[in-house]
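Quick one from the shared queue. A colleague (R.T.) flagged SAM-dependent methyltransferase as missing a structural entry in our internal table.

Convert sequence to structure tokens.
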Amino acid sequence: MSDTNSQLAASAEIRARIDTATPHSARFWNYFVGGKDNYEVDREIGDQIKEIFPGLVDVALTSRLFLGRAVRHLIREEGIQQFLDIGTGLPTADNTHEVAQRVAPDARIVYVDNDPIVLAHANALLTSTPEGSTAYLDADLYDPDTVLEAAAGTLDFSRPIALIILNTLGHVADHDQARDLVRRRMAGLPAGSFLVISDSTATSEGMIAASNAYNASGARPYYVRSVEEIAAFFEGLDLVAPGITQVPSWRPDTPADPSAASVDAYCGVARKP
């Protein structure tokens, strides 16, 4: 089979896996941040949840801004130029590779996801500056060893790497299992590597109600956690100031608006000793 025919067959197989009848977390999030890669079923549950808890839109938008600040900090202040982004989601503006290579053109980025809707948009992610490198892995959140082995084709594991997991760990129902997945990935990275996490938190009745409504929609469930449970992902690592904090309050580019800081999402950045 020719390369063109192989690519067409792969594309058809990926698209056959896309379920447009059930809400989907990546498309739902894409709708919230103003993207166009979503379906009516995603917009319907999105609008329903906006009625229940409009603050979830702020979580989506501020989480994207946090990603940019964290990546720029890691490059400028910590000397990190390699990034492993787990649970990529759908591309919007200022993806990890765009932010990183804008600051450091030779930065290397590996995206990891195994969702068909994300795979269908992989070409939008597989771009890079001539000096750097960007790759995409079709791999499972629950198989960290395979992810690390495949990522070594692009990243240099003799040098520090930033592991980024944003708004993804909530899909793992059991907190101990989620912690183990993080621990196993960090164990495979060299000393001086960093962990970057943000996730929605059960810090208001509105967020808990929104989570329950989303999980009742038939979509893959997403479980919001306590701030203490988010902090537990960083055990054994050295937190970068200001530590575990609400997403907008992590090293804001401008003086923080007190009202903007009150989102139900917490984050942290930490270094592996």
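The longest strand covers residues 194-200.
Residues 55-78 form the longest helix (24 residues).
Added to the table.
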